[in-house]
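Changelog excerpt

This revision adds worked examples to the README so contributors can see how folded entries look when concatenated. The first example is reproduced verbatim below.
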Amino acid sequence: MKKFIFFSLSILMSICLFSQQEGSPCTPDATLQDSVYLIVPDCIIGDNLPQAYSNQNYNAVIQIKTPEFVGDVIDSAFVDLGLPTGPVDVSGVSVDSITIVSVTGLPTGLSYDCSHSGCTFPGNVVGCVAVSGITSDLGLHDLNIAINGYISFFGTVYDLYGTLGDYQYIDCFTIDVSATANLDLHESVSCNYPNPFKDKTFIEYTSIENSKNTLYIYDITGKLIFSKVIYSNSGKNSFEFNGQFLDPGVYYYSLDNNFQNKIMIKK
């Protein structure tokens, strides 16, 4: 039986968006709204959170598209709601909301926050969870995310914990913290501007010496859709990217795949 919470696709990178709402720790990816349900990355199939490095700022975002109906995630859902008629099929019942109750196992120094107040996401919306901070807690850390779901049935709201006696758990996410990475020739990679952009955008980065590097751009599924060798000068550099060929949506970019990944939005 499918679990009450949901997974699919890949990729999760550090995020920097000029369009991010003030006070929000992350920006929900509106391009996922047409999905039935989704969590990106999908740790069930092996996708996971990005590498963390000791004493370096860490930013990761989990995108969540909540289901509209219970049947979107459960094929057959006969649940005992305490009614005189006995267990009832709730597969056609609307999902009222889903709440992240807790996230345990995070490396010391990292914390999480959500795009929605109280980490409660209504049914049939896209939300996100940001994991950020600075840690020196070396090693592989197994996360355990406790989730409570709510449904409305004939005017009464039922919760997963109250009905089944336990939360739903996602326990396949990990964060691997290693010693400070050698970021090769890049001291920093900045957010592109403008962002969102229509045709062209500029990517700024700093190099510690004259070098030859490769720019990689991926779509939301992790598919490489563009790469180009660029020549860098010591100091601050700016590369003009012409994205006219891209469809509207969210894309990720990095230089030499050095884990300083950023997000750009084509409108």
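The second example, added in the same revision:
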Amino acid sequence: MFTPYPMLLLPEFHERVWGTRDLRPYFGLPVEGAPVGEVWMTGEQCRVANGPLAGETLGDLALRFGAELTGEAAPLAKRFPLLIKFLYPRQKLSVQVHPDDEGARRVGEVCGKTECWYVARAISGAQVGLGLRAGITREMFRMAIEANQAEHMLNWLDVKAGEMIYVDAGTVHAIGANAIFVETQQNCDITYRLYDYGRPRQLHLEEGMAAIREKTNAGWVEPEVGESAPHAASVGRMISEGARPTRPLTAPPAPAHTVLVSSPYFAVERYKLEGPVVLSGAVGKSSVQVLVCLEGGAVVEYDVGGARPSTPTAGLPGTPQLVTFTRGEAVVIPAALRQVTVRPQWQAELLRMTLPSHPVGEPVTTMRSANEPSNHAPHFHEAE
């Protein structure tokens, strides 16, 4: 029986009025048309780049394989549960809000949209607008929209690279320029635009006002340095058959592992690797794993005994199979494959996204100090 294997996905590039034509350092190709604001790494139309499933879309594979791909923890087995994006704001995004699960179901969607933003790159002046200021009510906020003062009703937080921001559904928010974010969210693309700085785009005031929560759990998340994940006991298994080691066969260093956020809808972890690490499914409900490479490159090594190829040339059971990925690429590891080894090509920095294997509460967040919105918006690479 054929089962899915770790899949390298081809990203989708989405045009946005607030985007850019310079997608460095994660994507090198120049943008010749309209500016790109979002690069979807796990969109349902993203296609597989490797192996016998090459050319198939992620959405079709979720329908075909169900929980073998998405996991027992997925809200719907035949729908991929996490949408992961790179965000490239060259201008401010609209002031907006997303519905919670109940609100989304009322308009025919399967889930709401709680999300988080990992700050991959940032320069001085990078900010996000997060939640209404203390004492601001829906009515006051609506009056501010009509007076073109909506952005001043938000808490504006300075952000820097390496930080994690949690944005639960119902939080009024906006993103400023000067940073690149990796967004992890429930697989829902409902956005109610409340204020857009005079740009000629449709607003969704009635729907958005109904979705707003005046008090939410949004905020900056303190990272937790995790216990060292299991790392490969032997470095004798090489990246390709017949290769000889170019480094001494000594025990690799334990990976630097940080839990960036753990929530009812997803967990995001960061690994900084100098040696191999074994990634296993948590005890409890199984979950798909998504790996996004931020720096360097790595190889996902798996046993075809757990993910059997469709052709005899792909390897025999027990034979290690390899998927290589580098900066700006994502690999989806099916839930049915409970363990893989990830070997950096000397060094790698990865994000790992999963679903919670058991009930998890909201993360502990802080708002820190709020500022006025910044109007300084140099091109990101001016500071590099």
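Reviewer comment on example two: Confidence is low (pLDDT under 50) at residues 231-250, 308-315, 376-384. DSSP finds five helices and 23 strands in the chain.
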